[in-house]
Amino acid sequence: MAATFSLGEPFIELQQVESTNNYATGAVHAGLAQHGMVVFTHHQTKGKGQRNRTWQSEAGKNIAMSLVLQPPDLALSQAFLLSMATALGLRDFFAAYAGDETKVKWPNDLYWRDRKAAGILIENVVQSSEWKAAIIGIGININQTAFGTFTNKAVSLKQITGIEYEPLLLAKALCTHLSKAYEVLQKLPSEIIEEYKNHLYKLNETVRLKKGSRVFDAVVKDVTALGEIVVQHAVEERFAVGEVEWVFQ
User: Fold this and answer.
1) Are residues 193 and 215 in the same domain?
2) Where residue 167 sits, what CATH number does that domain have?
3) Contact 2, 35 (CB under 8 A)
C-alpha cells in the first residue's frame, strides 16, 4: 500500500509549462518523483483533456496541477476506483464553495448545474505489467469568466460565487480533500463507490448518448467499480470509458 502521508508534499510551483502531466511523468521516469508530489502551474500552454482533446485555461486564473501517486492496493483493472476517489475529493472541495449542485459527471468531469467546472485526466505509468504510478491531472475553472465557444457549457467558481480567488491557495486546499478521499479508498473502497453514485450527474434521469453513429436516449442507473456506466432504455446496457460520449442539446 502507498504511504499515507499528506498529498501535496512536495508542492512544485511553476510559472509556465506545456503540461503538468508531462512534467510529472518525466519526473517519474527520471526517478525524481515521490508519492504525493504535486506540480502546479500558473500557465499551462498545452493542457491535456480526454480523447486527445486540449484543456484550455487562461494564464493565472485557474488551477492546473498534477498529482503523483503510488497506486493503492488495487489491480490495474480496478484503476477506475482511483478515478472515483479523485472525483469525490475534487467534488467535496468545489462544493465547499459552490454548494450541493456540484456533481460528478461520468467518467471524469465535475459539473455545476449543467456546466463543466473541472476535468480529470489520469495517466498510468506501467512497467513490465506492473502499475508503477498514477499521474492525476486536474484542471479547475476558478476565476476565468470567458470561455469562447464553450461559454454556455463551462462555469467557474468566480461566476458561481462572485468572488475572486487565489488559485495557488485553493490548489493547496484541494490537496487536503484529495488526501481524505484517498485514505477512504485505501480503507473502505465500497464507500467510494457508494459516494460516487450519490453525487452522480443525471442519476435516474434521461440523457442522450452517442456510440459511433448511433445516438440514443437512456436513463443513467449506475456506474460500476470497473468504470462502466449502466443505462436503461428498451434494454439495460453497460459501456466502458471511451465507448460512448454525451450529447448535449
Assistant:
1) no
2) 3.30.930.10
3) yes
